[in-house]
Amino acid sequence: MVKFSKELEAQLIPEWKEAFVNYWQLKKQIKRIRLSRLPTKPPHAAQLFAGVDFGRSIFDSLRSIAANLADNLRPSYDDDNLTVIQVRRKTVKGSEEEIYETELAQLFSEEDEVRVFFESLDEELNKVNQFYKKQESEFMERGDTLNKQLQILLDLKTIISNRRWFKSSNPSSNSASFSHSPSRNSDYSERFGGESDETNSEVSSQTEEVITTLEKNGINLVNSGMRGKKTKKGKPKMGMRIDVPATNPTRAITAITSMLLEDLVNNPTTTGGDFIFKRKIQSAEKMIRSAFVELYRALGLLKTYSSLNTIAFSKILKKFDKVVRLMDEVESIFTKHFANNDRKKAMKFLRPQQNKDSHMVTFLVGLSTGCFVSLFCVYAILAHLCGIFSPSKEPRYMETVYPVFSVFALLSLHLFMYGCNLFMWKRTRINYNFIFEFSPTTALKHRDAFLICTSLMTTVVGAMVIHLLLRAAGFSPSQVDAIPGILLLVFIMLLICPFDFFYRPTRYCFIRVLRNIACSPFYKVLLVDFFMADQLTSQIPLLRHLETTSCHFFATIFKTHNPEACHSGRLYMEITYIISFMPYYWRALQCARRWFDDSDVNHLKNMGKYVSAMVAAGARVTYSRQDNHLWFVIVLITSTVATVYQLYWDFIKDWGFLNPNSKNPWLRDDLILKNKSIYYMSIALNVVLRLTWVETILHFKVGRVQSRLLEFLLASLEVIRRGHWNFYRLENEHLNNVGRYRAVKTVPLPFREMDSD
Hints:
The chain is mostly helical. The protein has 28 helices and eight strands. The strands form three sheets. Strands 5-6-7-8 form a four-stranded antiparallel sheet. A two-stranded antiparallel ribbon has the order 1-2.
C-alpha cells in the first residue's frame, strides 16, 4: 500500500503547495506528542496515545486519537460513535467570514501540546477552506463570463449568417453590410438592402428575431428604437450596441477593436473581405474554445485539491459538487459548440492524454550515443592518417569544413544542456510546460532532447568521416567540400518539412518563436519568446559560423565571389558587426515592447543591459581587427560595464538572489534544491563564465588549429553557462507562480470589458 505522504507528494499541485494541508508538520506534532511523557500530564492524557497506530496517513492517527479521547472522556461525551474529530463553525466578529474550530481543543490547557496540535489543525482547516472558497468563486465567475462570451459569439454568427443569406438571395445588391464602429460605444449595426419591400420586410423580421434572442439572453440592444426606420433608399436603419451587464455597472462587454477591422466591416461585400472577416470570427471562436479548455483544467486542479484535502477534513470539504457540476456543464457546452456533439473529440481537448515515456526512445539514445563515439574515434584516426591538420592542408579545411561542423556541435551541445534542464525541472517538479505554455501532449521530454542531440551529432560525425574518405580517395576538394553545405541544407529542409514525423510540433514551434523574435516589435512578447532570444545571445559564434559557411557555399558552388572575401572583405566585416548585434538588438526590442505593453520601467532597465552588451560586442569585433591601445581601453571599459550589468541582472532579477534579508543568506527565502552550497557554487561559476571575453583581449600566440579550438572551447563554455542559467531562471519563475498561486493560464477573450463612457 502506498503511504499517504507519497500519494500526496505525487499528486500535489506545485503552484498551490502552500495552500495544501501541511501534512508533514502535523505528523511531526503527533509524533512529538506520542513520544512526550511529561510528569505534569494527567494519567488519562498519558494513556491517550498509547494505542495510536500511525498507519497509512496522519489522518489514521487523528481518528485513533479521537477514539482514545472518546474512551477517556466518556463522562463528558456519551456518543459511542466518536471516531472523528468534531469541529464547529463560527463567524468572525466584525466580518461575515466563517472559520472552523475543533471542539476537543477546549478540553486541554493552553500549554498542553495536544491543544497546540488542535489549534494548528484549525489553522490548516481554515487555510484550506478559505483557499478553496476563493478559487471556487473565481472559477464560477470565469464560467459565467465565458458563457456570456459564447452567447455573444453565437449571436454574431446568427447575424452574419442572415447577412450572407440576404446577399445570396439578392446578388444584385452590394450594399448589405455588417458595420462596426471603432469608437468606444462600439455600435454594431446591420444594414440590409433589397430590391423590394417584401425582401426588406423579410430581412427586418429575421433581424427582429435575432434582437429578441439577444434580449432573452440578457443582452440589451441600445438604440433599438431605430428599428423600423429606413434610409433614403428604403433600407432598414438600425444602430445597436451589445451591452452585457457586468459586475461593475460602469463597465460593459464590447467587441475588441482588433476583431472587426473598420475598413473590412465597412466594405464586407468583397470576396477577400468576407474571407478575412470569417477568419476574425474563427479567431474569436478559437480564443473562447481555449478559454473553456483552461477553465476545465482549472476545475480539474481544484477537484484534485479538494480530494486530497478532503481525506483530512471529510466533514467540511466534502462539498465540491459545484465544481463537478460546472465541469459537467463545460463538457456539455464544449461538446455541443466546439466538437459537433462528438464527446470523444471534445475529450481530446479537455483531457489530453500525455505521451508516456517510451523505452524505445531510451534505447535509441543509447544506440546513437554509441554510434557517435565510434564514428568520432574513426574520424580522429582518419584525420591523423590523412594529415588533415598539417600546415599545407590546414587552412582550407579550417575555412570550409570547420565552421559547418562547429555549427552542429554547438547546436547539439545546446540541445544536450536543454535536455539536462528538462530532466532537472521534472525532478524538482518545476512546471516548465505551464511556464512556456507548451502542450503536454507534444512538448519535448528530456529523452527526446537527448535523442535529437545524439542523432544530430552522429549524422554530422558520419558526414565528417565520409568527407575525409572522399578526400583521401582523390576526389576534387571543391566537390568534396560541398558536403558540409549539403548537410546544412538537409538540416534546414528537415526543420521546415511539413510531414508529421521527427517532432513536427516542436519544429514548428521553434520556427514560430524565431519568427516572433525576428519581428519582436510587432508581436506580443511571451516568456518563451524572450527565453529563446536569450539563448541566441549565447550562440553568436554559431551565427558567425553560419555566415562563413554560407559565404563559402555560394563562392564554391555558384562562383558568386572569391572565397577569400569570406574572411577579409568589407561586406564580410559589415555582416559580422550585424550578426554580433542582432541577438542583443532583438532582445532589446522585446524589452521595449514589454515596456509598451506593461508600462513597467524594469523592462527599460533590462533593455539597457542588452544595449551595453551590443556596444561591448561591437568594440570586441573592432579590436580583433584594429589591435591598438585605444581600442584595448575601449573594449576593457565597455566589456566590464556590460559584464557587471549582466551579473547584477542574473543574480538579482533573473535568479532572485543576493537578498540580504533572506533567511538563506544572500540567496532567497524559497529554494527548491535542499543543498544551499549548490547555489553559492552556481553564483561563482556564473561569474567565471561571464568573464570568458577576457581571452579576446589577451591575444594568445597559438597556431591556427589551436586558435580555432580555443574559440570553440569558449563558445562551448558560454553554451554551458546558458544551460546552467536556464535552470535557476525557470526556478525563480516557478516560485513566483507559486507565490501567486498561479497554476492556470489566463486566456485573453475576444470580447473584453471597456469603460461604458
